[in-house]
Amino acid sequence: MSVIVVQCIAKLELGGAQKIVLDLMRELKNQGILITGEGGKLYSAVKEEFGERHVTLSCLKRKISPLQDIICYFKLRKILIKLHNRYDRIILHTHGSKAGVLGRIVSGSLPFVHSVHVIHGFAVNPYISHLKRFIYLTAERISSCFGDVIVTVARVHIKRAIEWGMSKKVKYFCIPNYVNADNFRVRRKKNKSIKIVTVSNFKPQKNPFMWAKTALEVTSRFGNVEFIYIGDGPLRENVERFLQASKGIKILGWRNDIDDLLPCMDIFFLPSRWEGLPLSVLEAMASALPVVASAVDGTTEVVLDNVTGYLLSPDDLDGYLHKLGELIENAKKRKEMGREGRERVKKCFSYKNMIEKVFYIYVSLGFTYSGKNR
User: Fold this and answer.
1) What is the DSSP letter of 167?
2) 106 near 113, Cβ under 8 Å?
3) Cα dist. 14→39, 67, 103, 299, 311 in Å?
4) Is there a domain that residue 342 lies in?
5) Distance between the two ends of the chain, CA-based, in angstroms?
6) Which residues contact 100 (CB under 8 A, 6 or more apart)?
7) Structural domains in the chain (count)
8) Are residues 355 and 303 in the same domain?
9) Do residues 194 and 145 share a domain?
10) pLDDT tens digits, 141-181
11) pLDDT, mean of residues 334-350
12) What are the C-alpha distances in Å from 35 to residues 18, 21, 30?
């Protein structure tokens, strides 16, 4: 029986979900097809890398658009029916809320399609309106009835999904994000100043104004500290206006050399309001950096409080100032926490672990290797 795995995600921007999708496509080789919407920082490179194995569905967008979503439902269904002319079974592996809702409903209408959906982090959070919360939860509850497998990147999301009334008939797995620690070296040269780095989008989720307030306070108290933000997004200009080109604070935009930059830093800082399981935290820990972050969602399953870093409430400015100040003044603690973090990443969040668990799910749904894959 021939089986094809179809990866589906709305937008090819820089992020942990996109990294997982692309790594899975590379592992699947000729037994994988990628369906995405248009646009995103990675779109052109992905189009070039995967060629005919990448299908663009221009109506697949992250924002809710009833007309476009209905069109997308029928177009996705048509693509899968066409694939069924060549393959006996299809595993539709969706990532993100929009692709997950549409994909699962489509798969429920086609008996030859198995649905695997990854929850990289819920769109439902304390900062959205009651109307949006109702719409998002209703969509998740309905679509979960049509799926076969739900994968979460954090254990807390399985518990939350069941509490929110999502289907108990599907199989739940937790497969955390990953990083290859060998790709991240440990810094050898001492900095003259203490560099505190953040790698993140400038979106409300990432709490960039809390980052900016913290950066202003810390740099005013310590003359030897630099704050560095690697990333971009819709709130960047507003944050830059708020900072008014303050000394000791830099915003670099997105960079392609994160694995070279992180080992030159001293502390990693991420005050997110909600998360999935942030890849940036794993990369920082792989670089032996202590982490000061908000105690939300999957972050609490990565950072061990008082061992590999510190966890605080998302808007606890005083807490951030206290813990960052403690690490700024204590080089020994920075080194100890960094060492513990790197060992934790190597042991618990490896690429091999992710691949083995995902392919276990594929095989359980009828997938077999063609011989050209491994």
Assistant:
1) -
2) yes
3) 11, 27, 22, 19, 25
4) yes
5) 18
6) 94, 117, 118, 119, 140, 143
7) 2
8) no
9) no
10) 999 999 999 999 999 999 999 999 988 889 999 999 999 88
11) 95
12) 12, 10, 14
